Amino acid sequence: MQGVARLLYSVLIGNLGSRELLGQTNTxxxxxxxxxxxxxxxxxxxxxxxxxxxxxxxxAEGAATVARHIATRTALVSLVLPTVVALGGSLWLxxxxxxxxxxxxxxxxxSLYSTSRGIxxxxxxxxxVALWDTVAGGLALVAxxxxxxxxxxxxxxxxxxxGYGVFAAVSWPARSRQRVEPALxxxxxxxxxFGALSGVASGGLLQLSQLAAHWSAxxxxxxxxxxxxxxxxxxxxxxxxxxxxxxPPLTAAAGRGDREGVRRQSDAIARRLxxxxxxxxxxxxxxxxxxIAVVWGEEYxxxxxxxxxxxxxxxxTSIAQGAATTLQSTRVRGxxxxxxxxxxxFAASVVTWxxxxxxxxxxxxxxxxLVGAGLASLAMLATVWRVERHRWLDLTARLVGGTGLxxxxxxxxxxxxxxxxxxxxxxxxxxxxxxxxxxxRRDVLALWATLRGRGAPPATT
Length: 461
What we know:
Elements: H1 2-16, H2 19-36, H3 40-56, H4 60-78, H5 81-93, H6 97-122, H7 126-149, H8 158-171, H9 182-201, H10 203-255, H11 259-286, H12 288-295, H13 306-330, H14 334-360, H15 362-387, H16 393-413, H17 418-451
Helix pairs in contact: 1-2, 1-7, 1-10, 2-5, 2-6, 2-10, 3-4, 3-6, 3-9, 3-10, 4-6, 5-6, 6-8, 7-8, 9-14, 10-11, 10-13, 10-14, 10-15, 11-13, 11-16, 11-17, 13-14, 13-15, 14-15, 16-17
């Protein structure tokens, strides 16, 4: 729901405002998300993991104590980090005073939202998250529509900050009479530290690409990049949500010392995420030119070549989300391994951008992101494949074959214009979706059963 709300938020700004306003607004949002990776996002993952662990052990009071501890630490850290990073980024990118203040407020609100959301997932309160994500997103959309109609563009970031603030306020953990013991506090801090390194290098890389586009090409072309990134981002948010829903049984198995259970659960997560994201993103890749034309219009034609590249990168990171969480949640050195792999991908992108961006513009920024994100994601999947001794040759064939088919259909249809091109893209996407659903029907049904709370037999390994 937040992905949809963020998409509609950007669509309103891009259509009722301008390419430049969209570029600046989404750059500020990327800066806020990047800031959250320094503490709030790994604290969110810690909330999911440690609250779920205490709940699985039947320790309700312990779960509440851990939740309050993580939330309080995030609130204290967020008084400093978002302000410093948002101010520094705004000055570097040349934002005006009003936009800079909006960026700082948005960064603070997003950090509180991110951590409180992860804690709610750890407490298995999925309905609460869905309800208040919807309410907060709807409130932000109504507020930004009023801002744009009244031509108060200097306040364009405040409605989004308001929505995130409302979610954090209604989801904040209650006070606890107990305190977290020192050993557990150190374990949580260790988890957050390596989670921050990993988050900046993975999720932060996607946001940094928007900043790189703004810095290298200016606000107008950054608006084109933002248009493509806006359509690609909801899929990455969906991957985090799905992985979070699928992780508690894995964490519980690890807590019991059930290695076979961990193996079964990690296999099921990888297969279900592959089934969903190759199918979903493959369809959108094929429909990319049509989607850009319908959502953004002819003014944003520069986004047409950027979107498929970002989508393939997001597909790989979405599938690898389950592998990363498996390593972090079931192996003592897992957080460190995930951090190092993501840092390697981060370095690959940063090294690639100076060569590609000057020559290819925002297309080069997108390709650089694909290089880094792809390397890190594939390395993550390969690591879980090896340590858990999975039988993933068939899964690899599906991933490579499905991605290759989607890209081939895009290349074949994207140059066709007018009604012929639209019909060709819709037909190719429909055919691809049917074929993929036929191949992955069991995994899709298993995921659907899990989301409805009915469980499902694990996929074969």
